[in-house]
Amino acid sequence: MDADIELNISFRFLALSEELVSEAKLSLKVSSCRPNKKLGGYVVCIPLTQSSLVSITSFVTSNNIKIENTDIFISFATEYDSRILKLPSLIAKASVYIGSPVTLSYTVV
Questions:
Q1: What is the pTM of this model?
Q2: Do residues 69 and 55 make contact, with C-beta atoms less than 8 angstroms apart?
Q3: CA 11 → CA 3, 4, 17, 56, distances in Å?
Q4: 6-40, pLDDT tens digit by residue?
Q5: Are strands 70-78 and 102-108 parallel, antiparallel or unpaired?
């Protein structure tokens, strides 16, 4: 990754119940949690890494999480308004493995 790009990759649960939030905090490395005013429940973010992918997949499967209530969230800030950015292969692997869509957010600084 280019040194001038700060790339953050997370797996997001978009509408977890309070009970599942508590369970996620025990079994996953939760980086943030906030109420989801639009969908209800809570948005819970977990940094997406090769090792967290297995735990996330297990959590999704064992708790019957609806895939449409998840995504792989990629955010970055750049000083360029036009640029080609090669994303890590982990993103494609996670999307195929779990089935979650990819959401991209960028900010030009």
A1: 0.89
A2: no
A3: 23, 23, 17, 8
A4: 789 999 999 999 999 999 999 999 999 999 999 89
A5: parallel
